[in-house]
Write the structure tokens for this entry.
Amino acid sequence: MAVKAVAFVARGNTGKTTLIERLLPELSGRGYRVGAMKHDAHRFEIDYPGKDSHRLTSAGAETMLISSAEKLALVKQHPQSPPAEELIRTYFADMDLVLVEGFRKSGLPKIEIHRKETGDPLICRGEHRDPALIAIASDGPVDADVPVLDLNTPVRIADFIEARLLKGGVGGTD
């Protein structure tokens, strides 16, 4: 069975991380194993000078994994960011659902976050109409051809995700 995933897309500082942070315990509390993945358009550093892991990657390790009794971290060098679907298949096979932040160009089902005070146009209904848009989460009214969910009611957004993706059977990454 394919892992289900939904990408939350929006302009910067719109609340993508905050919404995912609120959805994680709600969906986990319903018995689902939920993972999270974030796209970073900038060059982030997880490996710092002075750490053994940094020394190993600096010495030429293309893949470096550090593991303890509680968690592991993987640093893998690559020439370009792999597609979201590939990352989900590779690293999230043991999850029921992956909440993805960003990856707006992916083919993943998307929920776009919209804030009324910004007045910004929708990304997925702008110049390029994204057929993967399944809903909009907003703090105000939006004229849209997909369901508009109350951004401030994560329980209802979780209900939508559960009905549409987990029980409805769409949104897998075969």
About this structure: Residues 41-80 form one domain. The radius of gyration is 18 Å.
